[in-house]
UniProtKB/TrEMBL annotation:
The keyword Transmembrane does not apply. Residues 23-45 are annotated as: Disordered. One of its GO terms (biological process) is carbohydrate metabolic process. It is an enzyme of class 3 (hydrolase). It comes from the Bacteria. Residues 1-21 form the signal peptide. This is Alpha-amylase. Residues 35-45 have a biased composition (Basic and acidic residues). The keyword ATP-binding applies. InterPro entries: A-amylase/branching_C, Carb-bd-like_fold, CBM41_pullulanase, GH, GH13_cat_dom, Glyco_hydro_13_N, Glyco_hydro_b, Ig-like_fold. It catalyses: Hydrolysis of (1->6)-alpha-D-glucosidic linkages in pullulan, amylopectin and glycogen, and in the alpha- and beta-limit dextrins of amylopectin and glycogen; Endohydrolysis of (1->4)-alpha-D-glucosidic linkages in polysaccharides containing three or more (1->4)-alpha-linked D-glucose units.
Length: 1793
């Protein structure tokens, strides 16, 4: 149950005397009637204590009555016992017995109450080394139940109290509830204060909460543990039971936030100079402290408490604690039990708060202390006193008022009043100082309140300062520091006892005490101000005994000469006679005024000879309610006429609540305060009753309406480097003034009092000082003081850094402005720039300003501008500006030494024409840069959680705290610059750290990121956090949200789950015919199986994150989906996804459902499948590959029985199969199938597929209409290349005769079987680098199961799309596993013979090697296939977010060297074709397209000389390609140098990169980019004949086919296939992708302008070509080219020299004998063992003489000699000269005879 609600105002609530008539239950309740006049008039005018005189004493420093307890019963050195009378920081020996023995001395002062500094048992010593000191003062309590042994025993205390009571003196304890001794340490060993805004408390389950919400005891306090704190509290083993009561040993009872800065929130929550700060918002602490002090009330009969550090405890604590103690004392007959608090502030708004809201009886009157010092010691204005007493109404409550205030002049913390006198009056005589001291005493004793004498003050003690320096012993001292101290009014030193009742100050105090006793009105009579001089001089007031109606007039004078003043009184014609001071009797006139002369530095008291006359008229009252719309604390005032000594009692009522007494005002202006707490619009009613001296009453009512309370401002995200205080003094003299600052200031900025930061800056307003702030600073407290610590304004002030970093204050005025006052700064002179420059060393000689842009006269470096002057701030430079200048470029330098390394620019528009700079700092000090705003974007995820405990995040370096906030419900959102929904969220705290070398290696793209570690205390909640919304946030110390972003979690998911799940079988797994279905979904909140219309529960393995369910045989063949409830960042909410299985083995139509299918089931195997005999495996280095699209293969073939499908490959008599068979017989060994897995962009039902709604054949060859029609149908037609993977391991359904069910599985297998039967092994084009969709798209599978894991995310958390689509992240364990598992499934279950990896460079090399390893483990005996014979190759392109191994070692061209896995080589491709795929002008020529030898006229080719040079370089690239792209292959290049393949340049990269033959795949064209025929159409001269084009096509293909290593050719390239110049035909339909096996159907050229989406920019080049008859290929060209290519294949596959196994063999056998400076442009002569190959790309017959072969016989290769190409048969060789003669545009292969 919640702690009992404390009725803080119970005593003030009044039940209406009139009971309203009964009303119906349904009627709106009526507010209670106001209390009667009589009831209110009975309220007391005074409460509790108003006539006490306190003597405040530190027992250790007063008298030593028992030397046996000096060491507190401890042994050892002073660090053990705490005793060292020679050190002011240690016990001196005073004790309770000594006090008891000296009670008469205390009584002699007139003392009525002794205030004992804390006497509870303390920790003897705290601190180390120079900072070690003892607990002599009593504020380091360990045991609240017993007297500290250094002071004696509990019995000694009882005797002291008894004897004091016997002498008529009360005893007050100094009590502490704020803290205990320093016992609790922090495990982190750091002690800087950590704010609640940045480091909130956490519940046991990680929810942040504000303890203030529970501090009033009305709500149950959250459950916490030792992990709930900003720091981890620990207690040394030897101190675990040190504190008493035992509950104090629980470290969770403390705030545990670090050391207080004494500014802002830290004032209540921080450790008071390391002392353990109690968590006073907790009910256990409130109740515990109540019980502690109730015991002392019960057992020792004490009379009251002085409460320490009140303002460092939350107000709600005092409301509950003080009320409970009051009630407890009252129950024991102690109605006058009195509690006053130490509220160390001179601001009456602050001190009075603890009386009104904290329910204390009074506070120590620090405002009085300051005013008294200013008046009596500093000669200040009497108006200061007027202001002080004018605020007395703020203390008025139903149980207290200002008459109970506890006044004092000095104390043990701030210092003695004698010390202040010496500081303020340097050079003054002892007599003057004693006189001023006496004046201060008179002011304290004669004005309202209870005076305090601090022990020793009565003996004239001084001292150099506060704390230890103000704690001298009254007995003879042995402390050197004390022996040096002066004593006022005596020649005595501290070497002697000081109990001298004859001391002038002792005697004066005793006399004042007697005066108050004789005239009680001087203690608590009504105090009415009569006079206040504007400067030094008289302050006067009346004190009136209300019962006797006797008036006293008190006048004080702080001037150094007598002053006369005319004073008002309450009586006419009345004599006033002196009762104190040197004054004459006076008589009031008819105007009731008297004239009084007050001697210098003195006080006088005059008493009226007779009582006030009876009032002539009864009182009348006019009550004034606050204006409508008021809220918070307001003033309520009543105007009174008539009567006499009128007092007014106020009451208030809000809404339908009870009436509450507000208190009594006993003099005009009759004012009290009221706190309006009702909701806006609520009626607020007031009643006031006036009572005059005759007891007559009058009353009035007033009403107002509650307004809207100001909303608690949301802290704003503003970061500042400096706080600046501008200060204006009338005299303009700032020499001895400085800024004293505390709070959120940077290390090293704090100063010892009264040092500070000088007002060095000067501007038009006055002077300014500045202080550097710590990162994330929220507020800074400050005072403006002089060198002696005298304050310009007494109140502590604070800069709220969320609003401003700059304030303007004026001498003597409390108000601080956050904007300069109007007119403070005249308009700037825009004709010049003024730059103020400050150097810490103050050395400005030689420093000059070099200026250029914007300066009227730019300077030479050697002659910079010199300062026009130097001032207190530094050097001042003035720069005349050029007309219209908006900026000024400058460098501050001394010779070659620059202040800042980079050039600087002053933005005159943004910063104005005058700036203040600090040496070495980029930002200007003034004008202040605008604070940085918050970066709040939950749509992004810039924090990267890389492993179990580490987050890499380039977040704000100035943030106070960082954390991961998680919400299981997805409640977090950003609204109006704030994070909402945190009330339902939890935190994982982050500690800043650094990435390790291993982490940087694992995540190289994050190597420069800042690292954060999840706090070890929160790590048990990480797994929970990952299953909800996750946001990384940062806070300023104020709690302002600086940053909020989503979190990338792949790394942590791998660390916690992936590594353990990697070995788990996923998808449908059959054992004994029964399936188990498993899915990896570690972040899912729940996963269920939707099976054939019903839902089946799945079980989560918390170790792996795998959800699984075991089924029965009956499940086989049934459709299913997973129902996944999971946080989806892409839509920002918790979603329930019904999603297919990423490991699906079969699917329904259009992938709507997965099917529970066992791929090993016999019914899915075609006849002969189990014993399928494959063609002999061809090593990768010898592979000749045809790249083929399943649909293209047959959809345009009229001879196919199954057009567009898998079964077309079973049509052995179709034109397509016949052509493939011919290629196989010629040497083609593999058919590379473009993607045939489940494709996401093709409707699988033929009825749903669209076709162009046009007669495409009817349009001209260069028309736009074809592409228009095709584009309209493209989205839903049957064609797509297929690089849109939906399910990786299921065949595409649109290629099957029926997409529903397993037909696709069977037909895919039949396709493989048929190709194998034709002598062709199959390669699958696999696309694991991206998915067709991500996020919550219907076609997103992986990302709807584990959002954000399977896709690769960019720095902002968006999905990378460099591949074209939603990139995957195979570097992540489970995506890498999916790649391996999928490939193995295709290899085992579909007997695929090779895999071509699309964009393999986007895979880690490690992933591809894992595939290789998994395949190598497959055996015929175990798996039905020999995995070692499966070939792997892929696109090793280096681009995108992974480029240059940015995230991992990629599977790129250079990195795959030595692996035996091939990559496509673009080097020779580009050299052969010319230019690159993305040239703006497609006419850039190459080796096989006429560069230099047959220019096409395109300006893009450059001059003839440039063309020749480029052609020769292309020839070097082709030579490297012919070597198999070997990095170390050495040859002579066309410049005559010997170079390695890696030294030949390819667009800034090494041309050669392979380590062995077979690691680079050669090709002249593929499905990407234009077909070879189309590329040559753009590049060859327009007039090139079809025959010549066909020859160049064959020559281009030969450069790949006759190279070392594998070669690939796009299906139809040997048939001059065209796609009508389409650069990117992936979605161009069957029309543009048509593949004709019959030459009579043409080659596809001239089917209209290619689709605009990717080709419009090339239309101007394409249109004339498409209409040209020169490009119309016929059967002669098509069949001739194909035959010639097949001849080359035969040569390639029959001559073993083309398939060398090692780099050394290639180096030995391969050479280019004519390579060098004299190489023929356009001709490459290659010698390969006994073979010589001449590539003549020129339009002329060419002779190539190889002197080394002269005399050696060679002849045209028999295949060509007997082949289909008549032209090549004309190639000849001259043995005598070694000359080969080759026809134009021909490749000729010669063999040695």
């Amino acid at each position: 149950m919640p702690r009992r609600a404390v009725a803080a105002l119970a005593a003030a609530t009044l039940t209406a005397l009139a009971v309203p008539a009964a009303v119906q239950a349904s009627a709106t309740p009526r507010p209670p009637e106001p209390p009667s006049d009589r009831r209110l008039a009975a309220e007391p005018t005074r409460h509790d204590l108003t006539r006490e005189q306190f003597y405040f004493v530190l027992p250790d420093r007063f008298a030593n009555g028992d030397r046996g307890n000096d060491r507190g019963g401890l042994t050892g050195t002073r660090l053990a016992t705490g005793y060292d009378p020679t050190d002011k920081g240690f016990y001196q020996g005073g004790d309770l017995k000594g006090l008891t023995q000296r009670l008469d001395y205390i009584k002699g002062l007139g003392t009525t109450a002794i205030w004992l500094a804390p006497i509870f048992k303390n920790q003897p010593v705290q601190g180390e080394g120079e900072n070690a000191s003892a607990g002599y003062h009593g504020y380091w309590i360990t045991d609240f139940t017993q007297v500290d042994p250094h002071f004696g025993t509990n019995a000694d205390l009882e005797r002291l109290i008894d004897q004091a009571h016997a002498k008529g003196m009360k005893v007050f304890f100094d009590v502490i509830t704020n803290h205990t001794a320093d016992v609790v340490d922090y495990e982190e060993k750091s002690y800087e204060y950590l704010s609640k805004g940045a480091f909130p408390y956490l519940t046991k389950d990680g929810r942040p909460f504000d303890d203030a919400d529970y501090a009033d005891g009305e709500r149950r306090f959250p459950k916490t543990d030792l992990d709930s704190f900003p720091r981890t509290p620990v207690v040394p083993a030897d101190k675990k039971d040190l504190k008493v009561p035992a509950w104090l040993n629980d470290p969770s009872m403390y705030h545990n936030r670090g050391d207080s800065t004494f500014a802002g929130e830290s004032s209540t929550h921080g450790d008071f100079v390391g002392l353990d700060d109690l968590w006073t918002e907790r009910p256990e602490v409130v109740e515990g402290m109540e019980k502690i002090y109730q015991r002392w009330v019960r057992d020792f009969g004490i009379d009251g408490f002085r409460i320490d550090t009140v303002k460092h405890v939350n107000t709600e604590f005092w409301t509950q604690w003080a009320t409970a103690l009051d009630e407890y004392a009252a129950e024991r007959g102690r109605d006058d039990f009195f509690m006053f608090g130490e509220v160390y502030s001179s601001d009456t708004d602050i001190t009075s708060h603890y009386v009104r809201e904290g329910r204390l009886d009074a506070t120590l009157d620090f405002p009085f202390q300051e005013a008294a010092r200013q008046y009596a010691s500093q000669g200040g204005s009497a108006k200061k006193l007027a202001g002080l007493f004018g605020d007395d109404h703020k203390y008025t409550t139903d149980k207290a008022n200002a008459y109970e205030s506890v006044n004092f002049l000095g104390n043990h913390d701030m210092g003695r009043f004698g010390a202040f006198l010496k500081q303020d009056n340097a050079g003054a005589s002892d007599a003057e100082l004693v006189k001023r001291y006496a004046l201060a005493n008179e002011l304290m004793f004669l004005s309202r309140g209870n005076p305090v004498v601090y022990y020793g003050d009565e003996q004239g003690f001084t001292g150099p300062g506060g704390d230890k320096d103000a704690r001298q012993t009254l007995f003879a001292s042995k402390t050197a520091d004390y022996l040096d101290d002066d004593q006022l009014g005596t020649d005595r030193t501290h070497a002697a006892d000081a109990y001298d009742p004859a001391h002038p100050l002792y005697r004066q105090i005793a006399a004042l005490a007697k005066l108050r006793k004789a005239h009680p009105a001087l203690a608590d009579g009504i105090q009415i101000e009569r006079y206040a001089d504007g400067g030094a001089g008289v302050y006067a007031f009346s004190r009136i005994d209300a019962k006797a109606r006797t008036e006293y007039v008190v006048a004080v004078n702080n001037a150094t000469e007598a002053r006369t003043a005319e004073l008002a009184t309450e009586s006419a014609g009345t004599a006033f006679r002196p009762v104190h001071g040197e004054a004459k009797a006076v008589t009031s006139g008819g105007d009731k005024k008297i004239t009084v002369t007050v001697p210098a530095l003195s006080a006088v008291v005059l008493k009226a000879d007779k009582p006030l006359t009876a009032p002539a008229t009864a009182p009348a009252i006019d009550l004034k309610a606050p204006a409508a719309g008021a809220s918070g604390t307001v003033q309520v005032t009543a105007d009174v006429d008539g009567g006499q000594l009128n007092r007014v009692v106020f009451a208030a009522q809000q809404g339908n609540g009870r009436w509450q007494v507000l208190g009594t005002a006993d003099h005009a202006p009759h004012t009290v305060t009221h706190k309006i707490t009702a909701p806006a619009g609520t009626p607020v009613r007031y009643k006031a009753v006036v009572v005059d001296a005759a007891g007559r009453t009058a009353s009035d009512l007033a009403t107002t309406t509650a307004g809207q309370a100001p909303a608690t401002p949301v802290p704003t995200a503003t970061q500042r480097d400096y706080a600046i205080v501008h200060y204006k003094r009338a005299d303009g003299d700032y020499t001895d003034w400085r800024l004293y600052a505390w709070g959120d200031i940077a290390d090293g900025e704090a100063t010892e009092w009264p040092e500070g930061h000088a007002f060095t800056g000067r501007d038009a307003y006055g002077a300014f000082a500045y202080v550097k702030l710590k990162p994330g600073a929220a507020n800074v407290g400050y005072l403006v003081i002089d060198k002696n610590g005298n304050k310009d304004v007494s109140a502590d002030r604070t800069i709220d850094l969320s609003k401003t970093g700059e304030v303007w204050v004026e001498q003597g005025k409390e108000t601080a402005l956050d904007q300069p006052p109007a007119g403070a700064y005249p308009p700037q002179d825009t004709s010049k720039a003024v730059l103020h420059y400050h150097r810490p060393d103050g050395a400005y000689d030689g420093w000059g300003l070099h200026v250029w842009n914007g300066a009227a006269e730019p300077t030479d470096w050697s002659r910079p501008l010199t300062p026009v002057r130097t001032d207190a701030y530094g050097a001042v430079y003035e720069v005349p500006l050029a007309r219209g200048a908006t900026s000024l470029s400058y460098i501050l330098h001394k010779g070659d030494e620059k202040d800042l390394p980079a050039d600087q620019s002053l933005d005159l528009t943004a910063n104005g024409h005058e700036v203040w700079m600090l040496a070495g700092q980029q930002k200007y000090l003034l004008p202040q840069p605008k604070g940085g705003g918050a970066a709040l974007d939950l749509a992004k995820s810039t924090a990267v959680w890389i492993d179990a405990n580490t987050v890499a995040w380039n977040a704000s370096a100035t943030a106070a705290s960082s954390q991961l906030v998680y919400s299981p419900t997805g409640s977090l959102a950003v609204k109006d610059g704030a994070l909402t929904g945190e009330d339902r969220a939890h935190w994982l705290r982050l500690n800043r750290t650094a990435l390790t070398d291993a982490q940087k290696a694992a995540f190289p793209h994050l190597a420069k990121y800042t690292a954060y570690a999840v706090d070890p205390r929160d790590r048990d909640r990480i797994r929970t956090a990952l299953r909800g919304q996750l946001v990384a946030t940062q806070r300023a110390a104020s709690g302002a949200l600086l940053t909020a972003t989503g979190v990338q979690t792949a790394g942590v998911l791998d660390a916690l789950y992936g590594e353990k799940a990697e070995s788990k079988a996923l998808g449908p797994v059959f054992r004994g015919g029964a399936p188990t279905l498993s899915v990896w979904a570690p972040t899912a909140q729940s996963v269920a199986l939707e099976l054939d219309g019903r839902t089946v529960r799945m079980k989560r393995d918390d170790t792996t994150g795998v959800w699984s369910v075991q089924g029965s045989k009956s499940w086989t063949g049934k459709p299913y989906r997973y129902v996944v409830k999971v946080w989806a960042p892409s839509v920002g909410k918790i979603v329930t996804n019904r999603v297919t299985d990423p490991y699906s083995t079969a699917l329904t139509t259009d992938s709507a459902r997965s099917l529970v299918v066992d791929l090993s089931a016999p019914e899915l195997a075609p006849k002969g499948w189990a014993n399928l005999r494959k063609p002999a495996a061809v090593p990768l280095r010898d592979a000749q590959i045809q790249e083929l699209h399943v649909r293209d293969f047959s959809v345009s073939d009229p001879t196919s029985k199954h057009p567009g499908g898998y079964l077309a490959f079973t049509d052995r008599d179709s034109a397509g199969m016949k052509h493939l068979t011919k290629l196989a017989r010629s040497g083609t060994s593999y058919v590379h199938l473009l993607p045939a897995f489940d494709i996401g962009t093709i409707p699988e039902k033929k009825s749903a597929q669209t076709t162009p709604d046009c007669d495409l054949k009817a349009y001209p060859a260069d028309s736009e209409r074809q592409q228009e029609c095709v584009a309209k149908a493209a989205a839903k037609d049957a064609f797509n290349w297929g690089y849109d993977p939906l399910h990786y391991t299921v065949p595409e359904g649109s290629y099957a005769s029926d997409p529903e069910g397993t037909r696709r599985t069977v037909e895919f297998r039949r396709m493989v079987q048929s190709l194998n039967d034709a002598g062709l092994r199959t390669v699958m084009d696999v696309v694991y680098n991206h998915t067709v969709a991500a996020g919550q798209d219907d076609k997103s599978v992986l990302d709807r199961i584990v959002p954000g894991y399977y896709q690769r995310l960019l720095a902002d958390g968006s999905v990378a799309t460099s591949t074209c689509c939603a990139n995957t992240a195979p570097e992540n364990t489970m995506m890498g596993k999916l790649v391996v598992d999928s490939v193995v499934t295709w290899a085992k279950e579909y007997k695929v013979d090779g895999f071509r990896f699309d964009l393999m460079g986007h895979h880690p090399k490690e992933n591809i090697l894992a595939v290789r390893k998994a395949l190598d483990a497959l055996t015929v005996e175990k798996d039905g296939v020999d995995g070692k014979k499966i070939i792997l190759y892929g696109e090793g392109w280096n681009f995108g977010e992974v480029a240059d191994d940015a995230r991992f070692v990629q599977a790129t061209q250079k990195n795959m060297a030595g692996t035996g896995i091939a990559t496509f080589s673009d080097r020779a491709r580009d050299a052969v074709r010319g230019g690159g795929p993305f040239d703006a002008d497609p006419g850039v020529q190459g080796f096989a397209s006429g560069l230099y030898t047959e220019p096409n006229g395109s300006a893009a080719n450059g001059t003839p000389a440039e063309q020749r040079a480029r052609l020769l370089h292309y020839q070097d690239l082709i030579k490297v390609g012919l070597s198999g792209n070997l990095a170390d292959y050495t040859f002579t290049d066309t410049t005559g140098k010997r170079v390695k393949g890696a030294q030949v340049d390819y667009n800034g990269q090494p041309a050669g990169y392979a380590a062995a033959p077979g690691e680079a795949l050669a090709y002249a064209d593929a499905h990407d980019n234009e077909t070879l025929y189309d590329a040559l159409a753009f590049k060859l001269p327009a007039g090139t004949s079809p025959d010549e084009r066909a020859r160049m096509q064959v020559l281009a293909m030969a450069t790949a086919a006759l190279s070392q290593g594998p070669a690939l050719s796009q299906a139809g390239t040997d048939l001059l296939r065209s796609k009508s110049l389409d650069r990117n035909s992936y979605d161009s339909g069957d029309w543009f992708n048509a593949l004709h096996w019959d030459c009579r159907l043409g080659n596809g050229f001239g089917r209209g302008l290619p689709p605009a989406a990717d080709n419009r920019d090339k239309w101007p080049y394409a249109k004339p070509l498409l209409a040209s008859p020169e490009l119309k290929a016929g059967c002669a060209q098509i069949d001739g080219a194909s035959a010639a290519y097949r001849d080359l294949l035969k040569i390639r596959t029959t001559e073993r020299a083309f398939g060398l196994a090692t780099a050394d063999q290639v180096q030995s056998a391969l050479s280019f004998p004519l390579s060098g400076r004299d190489e023929t442009p356009g001709v490459i002569t290659m010698r390969l063992g006994d073979l010589v190959v001449v590539f003549n790309a020129t339009p002329e017959r060419q002779k190539q003489t190889v002197p080394a072969l002269a005399g050696k016989g060679h002849a045209l290769h028999p295949v060509q000699a007997g082949g289909a190409d008549a032209t090549v048969r004309t190639a000849v060789y001259d043995t005598a000269s070694g000359t080969f003669t080759v026809p134009a545009r021909t490749v000729a292969v010669f063999t040695a005879e």
